[in-house]
From TrEMBL:
Recorded GO MF terms: formylmethanofuran dehydrogenase activity; transition metal ion binding
Gene3D superfamilies: Glutamate synthase, alpha subunit, C-terminal domain
Enzyme class at the top of the EC tree: oxidoreductase
Descriptive protein name: formylmethanofuran dehydrogenase
SUPFAM superfamilies listed in its UniProt record: Alpha subunit of glutamate synthase, C-terminal domain
Amino acid sequence: METVTMTLVQQPELYLECYNVTPDQFAGKSLAEIADLPAHEGKIQWKLGDFFKFEGKAGETAADTKIVVNGNVRKMKRFGQKMSAGEVVINSDTDMYIGGWMTGGTITVKGNADTFLGIAMEGGEILVEGDAQNHVGSAYRGDWRGMSGGLIRIKGNAGNDIGTAMTGGTIIIEGDAFIHVLTHAEGGTVIIKGDVEGRVGGQMVKGDAYIFGNLLYPLPGFKKVATVEKEVDGATYTFDQYIGDLGERKEKKKGEIIYGNLYLKK
């Protein structure tokens, strides 16, 4: 795999949209061609080379291309957006929409990520070594198609609206989350190893939520049906299983009603 290292040399005045920083866009291009790719600061169009210097070499394909981003890019958005393969490593905190709509490849954020991480993601993996904010793996505002595949792992805490309208894939939060987990979900799995304040599974049709810590305010639309052992993230634990949201429409499969599941660790 070939590597392109991009190092910040000039901060934007506002926030910079880095939607072209993907292995798909860099693959097969020279460093000069990469530096000429557009980026937007509001309605003003710039080039990536106005803010970064570039070293290394891109691969011939996205799968053969790794991008390393150096410098404080806290005011930059959309790294890895719609990427299909390859690797992106961000050695900093970063802003919104990281890995949005991605279908493959891997993204590693070595700091914190802001809102809309991995929205409408279809495949690939995202690792955030710090915290993430709101709407992880959720649908874009006004849409009903959230994350459908892939894996998002957050080593720290996350905010609210995790996995909204999710249909597939897995989100693992190793710290705490706030409110609204798997709202409107029709599939997928969210694992929270810390505490959650409440509103887990509201209007959920299908999907699985695992809460290892305390759930302060459970929703009334769930009822306990069993105590079970489940393998979660490589280890086996005992959970109280609740089904719901009982107020929502339910599908049948082979004559059996399909519910969403909420698992609370004992």
